Amino acid sequence: MRLTQLSKAFIRSAAYERRFLRKNPWDLTMVVWIPLLTVLLIWWIFSQTQITNLPIGVIDQDNGPVANTAVRYLDASPTLSVRQMYYSAAEAESAILQRDIYAVVIIPEDFSRNILSSKSAPLILQVNAQYGTHSGIIQTGVQAVAGTLSAGVEIQRLIKQGMAPSQAAIAYSPISIQRISLFNAATDYQQFLASTVIPALLHILAMVIGATTIGRELRDRQLGRWYGFIASAQAYDNISGSISDSVSANISANISANVNNNVADNTVQKIAALSQPATKLPNSAAKDNTNQKPVSTLPSVHMGVLLFGLLGKYFWPMLTYGLWSILALWLATPQESVASSAVFATYLGLLLLMMLSFWLGAIFTLGSFSLRMGLSATGFISAPSYAFAGVTFPYIAISDSAKHWSDALPLTHYLKLHIAQMQMQAPVAISLPILYGLAIATVVAMMLTTLLTKRALAHPERWGAR
Length: 466
Fold this sequence. Notes:
InterPro entries: ABC-2_transporter_component (IPR051449), ABC2_TM (IPR013525). The chain is mainly alpha-helical. The chain contains 19 helices and 4 strands.
């Protein structure tokens, strides 16, 4: 088949989809505006790049000078904020249950006297560990305050014994830790979470679009009508049901060339036949008085036309998601310079992920002949995929069966590429196998979608399922 015929199939299919989106604002919103709002909303949610001032409570049973110093240190910590002083454990527990505070620090009786007497004086921390991130930050902050207090008390004791301040500091802590953060040194949660959550949500939306774009043709029994539109040399307006201007012009030219007026009637009959491919026209409608040939109910399915038609049908979602992917990567680019090759590799990987998501959504719908089943499958696969990607929970710590499932998800591999290139600034060569894998998976999914669409065209009796 000539390239011009394939390109016409692509253009007709894109025009078909454009007219549908123009007449259906909700579908247009799903394709264009919801992904944009998703990108902007997630970035706004994480606009405060660091977690600070987590509310805690304090029960001071000592009320001594050292206890008062501990309370001031806790409130001065950048990650903590003493929301309220409580006078009973029941009152503090009620505040934790209502999420007014996330932890309570109990300063026991004789806390100051025990410290001044060189005895053990623990601070009791009760934290709501249900919130893992909050819990870890609060424990780190309280531990830092306890360490600062302990150091101050011990150094003062050594100085009173006649030791120089510098020697006292070394004597208190002869071994120190020099911590060097290799990546994300500022602990920027916008870079850590937002830049990876956005592709995960776009992945979910893309699979939904992939399922609904082809699924509505099955649901509305319009799959044959769509293929007839992209394959027929005589195009018609699928949405309004009227003959397009080009067809009208051709008919007028044929009439002026002394062709029988029944030809125009036959054109209309072809259009009606394409909209209901499973129903054959009666002989009286298929033949006119001039012994014309019988009207074919559906053009023969050509794989090339079908493939280019599907590409045209998904052209607008691919275009819009490609644009919003640029925005997402621009927002995710850290302040320090990132190599252009790394940005290009990440963008290419994100484009491949979006295209693969469209095809996977279509595969689940076409495989089941049901839009409802297709949407259920896309939700089952895409919605929890971020949890298996190894971003928030270490990949190395999950079970072997969960690792197998994680390795089968395309989002896992893209996020490995994203983190390596955008946050760790690794050489592009490290991520090339992921790009190759995503490209191969996209081509395979595209061909499988074409085959399943051809199968669906051959079984019009299964159209119309919800």
